[in-house]
C-alpha cells in the first residue's frame, strides 16, 4: 500500500514538473524577456528603475534582474479609457491575482501588522492608484510613481541583506502599447548568503509567475468592457 502511494505521488510530482516546464517554455515564446546575473555597470544599465541607488551600479554589489514585456495594439483595448487608466487597472488586476500565488501565501505567513494583513485584501488593492507609500501584499511598498510606471520597494523580513524593486510600466510606440514588468534584487558582493532568486526553483517560479501575469494581464485589458 505504501509503495503504491509513493509511486502515485512520484508520478504526480513528475507530471507536474513536466507540465510547468512546458508551460514555462510556451510563455517564453509569447513574450519578450531578458535577465541578468552578476555585477552591474552604470554604462550598461539594463533596467529603467529609477529608485535603485547609484551604489548598486558598482562592483561592490551583486544583482539579479528579470524583465518581461508584451506589446498590444492600442485599438484592441477600450478606446473610451485612457492608456494611463488601463495601466492602473492592469496593476490592480495583477497584484490581486498575485495574492493567490504560492509566493504570496508564503509572504502572508510572515505578516504581523494590521497594515500588512490588510494589504492582501482585494478591496484594498482594487481601490489603489498606487501612490507613493501604498503597501501591497505585505512587502511591496510604492517608492516611485509616474503616469506610466509604478516602482515598488521590496522589504523582506529576516533578509535585511537583500534589497529589491518591482516595477510595472508601459510605453506607447506607434499604434502599440508595450507593457513591462521588471524585478531586480541586490546584495553586497562580499555577502555569502544567497538571495531568493539565486535559487533555481525560486527563480523558475518567479519567471513563470511574472511572465504569466504580463501575458494574461494584457489579455484582461483586451477583454475589458467599459
TrEMBL record:
Entry superkingdom: Eukaryota
Protein name: Uncharacterized protein
Source organism (scientific name): Penicillium atrosanguineum
